[in-house]
């Protein structure tokens, strides 16, 4: 079996507006000035507390818990109001369904989101039952720590040589490298091509249409089944 693990924010869903809004709420809650949009979104992929810590620096780390709590409460409230609907990127749903239909593919998620956020994505886009392993910030250290991938490997029994992490940030690629699995970088998210290349992505793609070929070139599953 092959294990294909997806990041969520910036890879499957375009969440930049809702994440930016949540970060604004966090900074406003403690009276700190909000960074510019590019700087703020550069931390996407990190777990929430680590993301705020990266943004505020060493002088305001005591404010991080309150910022993270404000972010979470805002998310919960806005979801109840139907205001937190992050669209899937073009081709994401089709790729998931295509891979899910294969007998030799297992699909997973490794994300800095909480499980609550993943469940919301699944409900919004009818993705229940597609992922056999879901790793979140609730139970794992922040990326690029390899714990999420290690847990996914343990849960599925997949071999590292047959596992690929797909993500849009250097955190995803570094996590994959540390865990000893393959990595595909996607350029439609939060980190650019050069960052993904520097971290050692096996392949870098620009649309979901290119994912099948990238995976086949890495895993060579067509040759195995020929």
Mean pLDDT: 95
What is the molecular shape? globular
Largest sheet: 6 strands, parallel
> What share of residues is helical?
40-55%
H-E order:
EHHHHHEHEHEHEHEHH
Low-confidence stretches: none
Compute the separation of the termini in Å: 16 Å
Question: Structural class of the secondary elements?
Answer: alpha/beta
User: Roughly how many Å is the radius of gyration?
Assistant: 17 Å
Output the number of helix runs.
11
Strand content: 5-15%
Strand order of the largest sheet: 3-2-1-4-5-6
| Number of strand elements | 6
SSE blueprint:
Elements: E1 2-6, H1 16-30, H2 37-41, H3 48-56, H4 64-80, H5 92-100, E2 105-110, H6 115-125, E3 133-135, H7 147-156, E4 163-167, H8 170-179, E5 182-186, H9 193-198, E6 203-205, H10 211-219, H11 221-225
Parallel strand pairs: 1-2, 1-4, 2-3, 4-5, 5-6
Describe this protein's structure:
- The protein is α/β, with parallel strands linked by helices and 226 residues long.
- The chain is built from eleven helices and six strands.
- A six-stranded parallel β-sheet has the order 3-2-1-4-5-6, sandwiched between helices.
- Helix 8 links the parallel strand 4 and strand 5.
- Helix 3 packs across helix 4.
- The protein is globular.
- The protein starts with a strand and ends with a helix.
- The model has no long low-confidence stretch (mean pLDDT 95).
